[in-house]
Amino acid sequence: MRLVVDLNKCQGYAQCAFLAPDVFAMHGEESLIYNPRADEEQRERLARAVAACPVQAITADGLDGAADPADGAADGASREASDGR
Amino acid sequence: MAADYLEWLRREGRIVIVGASLAGLRAAETLRAEGFAGELTLIGDEPYEPYDRPPLSKSVLLGMASPHHTELPHRWEIDAKWRLGVAASGLDLTAKRVRLADGDEVEYDRLLIATGVRARPWPKEDEARLDGVCLLRTREDAADLYRRLKAGPRRVFVIGAGFAGSEVASACREMGIPVTVAERAGAPLVGALGGVVGAVAADLATENGVDLRTHVTVTSLEGDPVGRVRAVHLSDESVVEADVVVVSLGSLRNTDWLAGSGLGAGPRGIACDAGCRAFDFRGIVTDDVFVAGDVARSPHALFGYQFLSLEHWGNAVAQAETAAHNMICHGADRRPHLWMPAFWSSMFGVNIKSVGVPPMGEQLMITQGSLAERRFVGVYGYQGRIVAAVTFDNTRWLEFYQRQIEQGAPFPVEHPTVDRRPEGRQPVPADFPDPSLPTHGPMVTLSGYSPAEQQLVFHPARH
Predict the structure, then answer these.
(1) Which of A17, A19, B59, B92 is deepest in the core (most CB within 10 A)?
(2) In what ranges is there compositional bias, type Low complexity (chain A) (predicted)?
(3) Residue B2's pLDDT is what?
(4) What DSSP string describes B263-330?
């Protein structure tokens, strides 16, 4: 699954780092680093992190269905928007 | 007539986007989300679908992400024709055609240019070719640099202490690699944040073990007999042995392919109006060519209508969305690109964020926290107004200051603040370098005519 965090929005609440520690980590007190490509086994934790972000800064695709469009061809965009709302 | 054309365009027109990175992708998504049903083509010089760059100097170098897997999630089905791995090489405005490097041509009804920037290479070509001399812009650059860092170099030398160079130095220290950073100015980040805040960044770097050399330039890179870099020569006549050299001298705008096209494009980007329509070289706005992202320069009402050229992630997103919206809208429904400039960086475990245009500031007040603690809010003032703010590990206050900038709040700041210290109460000069001196530092360049003043206010000589 692919994801991106809008770090202009991110305020370092660290909810994602608690909920999906293999994807998100705090680096220092308030800066966030993350892996833009999460493993399939992280699906549920990633979904929780997306939902829990107080400023809705995380966008991920491939969360809403079985197939991961990220593994498709270059034109394989996801079927619908999923920005955690 | 115009209404008919737009209806036709939305239904079966051809839109071509040159540049398949963040801005190109977000524009394509917006076009589809807003009902564009015609033919959409994305042209990109890199052979990859759109990927995100900020992680390349952060989580990738810290070993948390793969340089090959930072592709951006798609928010919308874009059903596009992708022409990846082939650069655009020319534009014919009259025939409405984009020429490609492989000789092919692509016709458009409306065009969006989002070709971004590339890393400024080391100017001496024979030295730039030495094994171990690296840039950091693309995913290949990141993969190469990461591999070299993992191999345990004796010393890394970073040329240029802007954000990217400082992030590389930070990653090196985290990996326990000795690193030297050379900066022409008196401290890191001075082009973007000024000398007062730059001094904090300098302390951060040296405390974390960076060998920081300021007020120096690199005069030459020395190779060994088999063509590997082995030493860096500096203007103070010192020599530093290093087996990896990272050239971090800012970026060049990808406008070369537009030479002779008639567009108002040059080394400082492509000028466009606040609605993202490109100007031609006569200063007349075009009807069918739009611009977004790092390559664009557009006037901003909040900052004296100066043309801002912003190499910021958030600007690429916002401007792409505005450009895409405007491409398929009637004049009255068009929106201005009035995004509040904002960026972030992190180095040595400290989160640095900013809103507004710091280099416009003449004076600085530390309104919260303290420089010595590396946790503060700095507010920049220009002609009695707040024009920017920067935070070190204090991001949650930034939104408040953004509102202040939007409201044209007075400077010096008079409101009471949480965690206010006595030393920050007096404004001090923000200490930006003389803009007429060459620098690679600023991520924001300001230029253009203000309707109020009719003069060129700020003109960094970057080239």
Answers:
(1) B59
(2) 62-76
(3) 63
(4) BSEETTEEEB-TT-EEEBTTSPEEEEEEE-GGGEEEEEGGGTTEEEEE--HHHHHHHHHHHHHHHTS-
The pLDDT tens digits for B359-401 are 999 999 999 999 999 999 999 999 999 999 999 999 999 999 9
Range with the poorest average pLDDT among B48-57, B179-188, B213-222, B439-448: B439-448
The minimum CA-CA distance between A16 and chain B, rounded to whole Å, is 15
Among candidates B91, B89, B81, which has minimal Cα distance to B14?
B81
Burial of B102 (0-12, 13-18, 19+ CB in 10 A): exposed
What are the tokens at B313? 């992630």
The pLDDT value given to residue A83: 39
Most B CBs within 10 A among A33, A40, A50, hence the mutation to make, goes to A33
Task: Please identify which residue in the block is written with the tokens 């109020």.
Answer: B452
pLDDT value for A63: 78
Show the domains of chain B with their CATH numbers.
Answer: 2-53+71-118+252-333 (3.50.50.60), 125-249 (3.50.50.60), 342-432 (3.30.390.30)
Span B51-64, average pLDDT: 95
* Chain B residues inside the 8 Å CB shell of A40: none
> What would the mean pLDDT of B314-323 be, rounded to a whole number?
97
Nearest-CA residue of chain B relative to A6?
A: B314
- ipTM computed for the complex: 0.89
Please compute, for residue B114, the number of CA atoms within 13 A of its CA located in the half-sphere on the CB side: 33
Q: How near does any CA of chain B get to the CA of A58, in Å?
A: 10
Of B69, B343, B344, the CB nearest to A36: B69
- The mean of the pLDDT values for chain A is 81
Torsion of CA B226, B227, B233, B239, to 10 degrees: -30
Interchain CB distance below 8 Å, A82 and B75: yes
For chains A and B, CB pairs below 8 A equal: 111
Residue B215 φ/ψ, nearest 5 degrees: 55, 30
Contact B147, B261 (CB under 8 A): no
Decide if B6 touches A, using CB distance below 8 A. no
Q: Which residues of A touch B348 (CB under 8 A)?
A: 28
* Structural class in CATH, domain A3-65: alpha beta
Among chain A residues, CA nearest to B69: A37
Chain A contact for B353 (CB, 8 A cutoff):
yes
Domain boundaries, chain A: 3-65
Reported as a single tens digit per residue, the pLDDT across B412-452 is 998 787 888 887 778 999 998 876 555 544 445 544 444 44
pLDDT at B426: 87
Instruction: Give B 313-332 residues with CB within 8 A of chain A.
Output: 313-314, 317
Q: What is the dihedral of CA B132, B138, B142, B144, to 10 degrees?
A: -40
Cα A65 from chain centre:
15
Going by DSSP bridges, is the β-strand pair B105-107/B239-241 parallel, antiparallel, or unpaired?
unpaired
Taking CB atoms and an 8 Å cutoff, what residues of chain B touch A11? 395-396
The structure tokens listed for A60 are 């991920």
